[in-house]
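anyone seen this seq b4? input:
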Amino acid sequence: MYVWLSAALAFITAMLVTPLAIKTAIKYNIVDQPNLRKVHIKPVPRMGGIAIYAAFVVGTLALGLYSRQVASLLIGGTLVMLFGFVDDVKGISPKVKLLGQLLASLVLVYGGFSVQFITNPFNGGIISLGIFAVPVTVLWLTGISNAVNLIDGLDGLSAGVSSIAALCMAAVCLAQGNTLSAALAVILAASALGFLRYNFNPAKTFMGDCGSLFLGFILGAVAILGLSKGATVVSIFIPLIIMGIPIFDTFFAIVRRMFLHKPIFGADKGHLHHSLLSLGLSHKQTVLAIYAISLIMDLGAVLMAVLTSSQAVLILVLITIFTFAGAEKLGVLRGNKVGKLSSSEKTR
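predicted toks r here
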């Protein structure tokens, strides 16, 4: 009951704070200006992530579970949000923004968030990370933060995909008896869904880096807290599948840019949403299609958590095959459809 009340409070908070964030952003000209690469044709407020942050904090505090882990999660999330907010307002270098994520990740490590071991996918044995536990944890948190930020290219895309991932993560955590992680995931989903009311196409506001980086950071943290304790062969892959859209899209972007001999950290138009737009789907249809793909992958991850190891491995293999085959077909993997978008289809 407390979890659902906290989630409801988070949802209501996001619904109430988002309009205030929109008005504040307009007043101080914190807006995303249109250009040839962006789909919107007029300035759009871009500090909606403040509402997601505020909703999650309110919902988490309402749980009444005050511990070192919860405190470190809120402090670390605040750091990530603040660095993203400064970037939204006046812009900071990627190095400074990454420094903020590193500091926030170390706060979580100090608070007890750490990937101590992974399972060996070949024999199911335990591989202790030892001294590598901290760098692996930091790499995971910063990686997921930036992966979610990377897919924030269409109205409602990042908020919707993160909500689906959080709800499926909650289901897996409950199946494994991790009630705190499940509660935090549900609250995060409620926060994002409350904001989505104003962010779905046509968006009245964008979440900005303060929102997308925060969403990714909390998702990564909850995955460590709730999904890194399993000792089955497939346990290492469950969080990867749950956050499959941002993770695979980022991975394919790196492979694609290497294949095309382009800078790995440069921008291109070969992401999943670009490829779907190039097929003739509308903005809204593209987002809904990616929602559906994300839901299918995440439901597969839920099944992996409750089925036998052999059945879970089969699901993992099928998801992997279809993911790579689909990426190749759409041109996401090697970029064979890059550059086919018309000026009216280009995204943020």
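Residues 2-236 form one domain. Residues 338-348 have pLDDT under 50 and may be disordered. kinda curious what u guys think
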